[in-house]
Amino acid sequence: MSTTFGRIAKLNVADDILISMSDLHMEYEITFDDDVNPNESLINVWNLSASTISRIQHNDKLTLTAGYKTDGSGVILSSRVSTVNTRRESVDKITAIKVIDGPNLGGILLPERKTTTGVGKKAKVKLTRKKTYGKNVTASQIIRDLVPLLGVAIGKIKLPKDITYPKGYTVSGKVVVEIEKLARACGAAFFINKQRLYICRLAEAASSTTFELSSATGLIGSPEPYENDKERGYKVKMLLQYRITTASLITIKSRTANGKFRVRRGKHVLSGSDHYTEVEVVRV
Predict the structure, then answer these.
(1) How far is CA 155 from CA 176, 193, 242, in A?
(2) Pick from 254, 268, 282: nearest CA to 9
(3) pLDDT of res. 192
(4) Is 146 within a domain?
(5) To bridge 279 with a disulfide, which of 78, 171, 249, 266 should be the other Cys (CB 3.0-4.6 Å)?
(6) Cβ(266)–Cβ(277) under 8 Å?
(7) With 70 as the cut, is the pLDDT of residue 123 above it?
(8) Is residue 14 part of a domain?
């Protein structure tokens, strides 16, 4: 493990405040997954000065870079500050910075529109959140019309199959629910990672680079199988690996799991003497 000595963790807030674990004690848990619900991450920093704490504000841009001096480092979190709270523990002052990776999209509704029924004196105007698309509209056309309503930067939109609706298509209510239905029908995953929206196959959401994981490159213990209603795969723990995130491709060489796997969800953790990445993967 000569490639993983010399831990690095650097926090940059508002392109103005730089905090390094080489100067102050820091701990964090950074989560990522393959759905559109915002991920909540937490960064704790010990004994920041009062002036520095006062400069960290809600909605400030924040990036966290982590890794090792000899293996390199990279961004594991790019988002905005949600809350900042400082507490005392004995002689220490601990500042907790909570970060939400993207807005809560679940409450965003289609805009209200006026519709008229009847004619003349019998005409009635009412408000509706329905929108109907004409004959032979495609799923990609509907999705690209709805996505701007979410206000999230686009990482990639590429449907495995683009369904055509000969009789037209009607959407109503919550924008996320409608996009999820269309994405699922077209065989695409729909998720947000590092404040960017992806509607595509998981395999197309990440770099094509395959990371090889074994005991020689940071694997901790042996992968453990898991299974739920939607999938079966392995839980894998490794020394912190900044290259790993949602959709990353990993070639695992171990006693219990071997072959190519795709990351579905996971977390990067720095806690005390522990510095690791833990993921759930499914076989490709």
Answers:
(1) 16, 8, 19
(2) 268
(3) 87
(4) yes
(5) 266
(6) yes
(7) yes
(8) no
Query: Domain tally for the chain?
Result: 1
- pLDDT tens sequence across 240-279: 999 999 999 999 999 999 999 999 999 999 999 999 999 9
CA 76 to chain centre: 10
pLDDT interval class at 26 (50, 70, 90): very high
- d(CA 142, CA 208) in angstroms, rounded, equals 28
What pLDDT does 207 receive?
64
The tens digit of pLDDT for each residue in 199-239 reads 999 888 876 667 899 999 999 999 999 999 889 999 999 99
Range of the domain at 161: 105-204
What is the per-residue pLDDT across 59-107, written as a single tens digit (0 to 9) for each? 999 999 999 998 889 999 999 999 999 999 999 999 999 998 877 788 8
Q: What is the DSSP string of 225-272?
A: EEE-SS-EEEEEEEE--TT--TT-EEEEESSS-EEEEEEEEEEEEEET
End-to-end CA distance of the chain: give it in Å, rounded: 27
The answer as to whether 109 is a domain residue is yes
pLDDT value at 127 more than 90: no
Find the CATH number of the domain harbouring 125. 3.55.50.10
Single-letter residue type at 197: L
DSSP 83-136: EEEEEEETTEEEEEEEEEES--GGG-BPPPEEEEES-GGG-EEEEE-EEEE-TT
Q: Evaluate whether 108 touches 126 at the Cβ level (below 8 Å).
A: no
List phi, psi (to 5°) of 217: -115, 15
Q: Is 131 helix (H, G, I), strand (E, B) or coil?
A: strand
Q: What share of the chain is helix, strand, coil (3-state, %, to 5)?
A: 15, 50, 35
Q: Which residue, among 152, 7, 3, 6, has the nearest Cα to 76 in the 3D structure?
A: 7
The residue type at 260:
K
Q: Indicate whether 123 belongs to any domain.
A: yes
pLDDT of residue 3: 46
